[in-house]
Amino acid sequence: MNADRLENAKGDNSCDSLLLDSQMCFALYSTSLLMTKVYKPLLQALGLTYPQYLTMMVLWEKDGLTVGEISTRLLTDPGSLTPLLKRLEVEGFLSRTRSRNDERVVIVELTPAGQALRERAANIPQCILDATGQSVERLQTLQSELINLRTHLQETL
């Protein structure tokens, strides 16, 4: 909800609390959609979708993770990650192998092509920063606030 309207909504049953533009969730949702649209042409040049890009960033941070570890890092279900990983494997960016200790565990490792893709993606953060029209400091503050919100929401589940 909008902060101004949140105060009114606590003790007020007015219809204002149900206006779309009064909903914080819609502000987050619509901003996320637009952010993804800004990423799209940048990622198309690399042959990636946005979820694939996020997965590659996780692996660029730390290679050799299990599907479960990647899933945890991305806050997603491991089952929904499998088709995405298969596609990245077909594209030659990563390999998936079963653990020798536990065949239920799949280890994901970057290939040389997947490692090289990192260099090709290096300019994307600056392109996104430019598209936002915001300062680095303002975006860092916003990111911190969003992470705090996410943490509180996770605690309610």
What does this structure look like?
It is a single chain. The chain has 157 residues and is mostly helical. It has two domains: 34 residues, no CATH class; 122 residues, Winged helix-like DNA-binding domain superfamily/Winged helix DNA-binding domain (Arc Repressor Mutant, subunit A), CATH 1.10.10. The protein is 66% helix and 8% strand. It is built from eight helices and three strands; from the N terminus they run αααβααββααα. It has a three-stranded antiparallel beta sheet. A hairpin with a 7-residue loop joins strand 2 and strand 3. Helix 2 packs across helix 7. The two termini are 19 Å apart.
Please outline what is shown here.
The protein is mainly alpha-helical and 157 residues long. It has helices spanning 3-11, 24-44, 50-61, 67-74, 78-90, 112-121, 124-132, 136-156; strands at 65-66, 94-98, 106-110. The protein folds into two domains: 1-34, no CATH class; 35-156, Orthogonal Bundle (Arc Repressor Mutant, subunit A), CATH 1.10.10.10.
